[in-house]
Write a structure and sequence with these properties.
Radius of gyration of chain B: 17 Å
Distance between the termini of chain A: 62 Å
Strand content of chain A: under 5%
Number of strands of chain A: 0
Number of strands of chain B: 0
Order of helices and strands of chain A: HHHHHH
Distance between the termini of chain B: 58 Å
Radius of gyration of chain A: 21 Å
Oligomer: heterodimer
Structural class of chain B: mainly alpha
Number of helices of chain B: 3
Structural class of chain A: mainly alpha
Shape of chain B: elongated
Helix content of chain A: over 70%
Helix content of chain B: over 70%
Chain lengths: ~170, ~100
């Protein structure tokens, strides 16, 4: 029962903060709302027997990615985060109808699924989420994605440096 | 009846993804658009880790961790683009950034 209560609270918080992320006009407030959503999802990860993923979620997502967002928002200042006038307002009704249709389809699929055990109590988990299990899996059966990850990070870092360098050159600096 | 069945996690994941999708369609400032993309990636991660729990197997968590790395890389390049566009004294609006050229 306790697990269900924690799930309900965390899920409600994640969805409420998510709704704030896409509705708040102020970019700074939207980024802070994203932190709330990410932290709630970290709680969900702990419920799912994935403590390592929860820690990475807080450290990498809330700690690094959102802070990067906040830095850029602070750097851009007022002009950068000002909302442009909304030219799509007449079509808002169609957007709402499409979103509701997608929600209804998802609900039908979930209620109708025949996946064994999807609707019943889950079995107690084995050791699948501890740092030891994750490290073991990364360095044995998932070594290729692990190395591909490092290549991807290198490419992203080089790309970011090139973008910044070009932007500075365009302004006449070196 | 003590645990939470898989469908609840999948429902949460779907709704989070839908919220992010709505954000991507509604927002026009690239910064706020990237925030909504993060929301979508998080929804996907909930589904991946939920299935990892369901099959009692850590593969889903590995996938989710790789998704987090991809998200970090995407944010670095995306924010780099946003700052580069901003420094050109252009308006930050995805509708007007339709012709990106080096």
């Amino acid at each position: 029962m306790g697990e269900r209560i924690v799930f309900g609270v965390a899920a409600a918080a994640a969805l409420a903060c998510g709704a704030l992320v896409i509705t708040l006009r102020n970019a700074f407030q939207a980024a802070v709302a994203l932190i709330g959503s990410l932290a709630s999802v970290a709680v969900i990860f702990i419920l799912l027997a994935a403590p390592f993923a929860a820690a990475v979620q807080v450290i990498v997502y809330a700690g690094a990615i959102v802070v990067l967002f906040l830095f850029v928002i602070a750097y851009l200042g007022e002009r950068g985060v000002a909302g442009a006038p909304d030219r799509l307002a007449p079509y808002r009704v169609f957007g709402a109808v499409a979103a509701l249709a997608l929600l209804a389809q998802g609900a039908i699929v979930l209620l109708d699924t025949r996946l064994p055990g999807a609707h019943s109590d889950p079995r107690p988990p084995g050791d699948i989420g501890s740092p030891r299990a994750i490290g073991d899996a990364f360095l044995s059966s998932h070594l290729v994605p692990f190395e591909a990850t490092s290549l991807l990070l290198l490419a992203a870092a080089v790309g970011a440096v090139l973008l910044a360098k070009r932007a500075i050159q365009m302004e006449g600096g070196r | 009846m003590s645990g939470v069945p898989l469908v609840y996690y999948l429902g949460l994941s779907g709704i989070l993804f839908l919220l992010g999708l709505l954000g991507v369609m509604v927002r026009r400032n690239p910064l706020l658009l990237l925030l909504a993309v993060e929301l979508m990636l998080n929804g996907a991660n909930v589904a991946l880790i939920g299935f990892s729990r369901h099959w009692n197997n850590s593969d889903g968590q590995i996938f989710a961790l790789v998704v987090m790395v991809v998200a970090a890389a995407e944010v670095v390049v995306g924010l780099g683009l946003v700052v580069a566009v901003f420094r050109q004294r252009l308006e930050l609006d995805v509708d007007q950034m339709s012709r990106l050229k080096g």
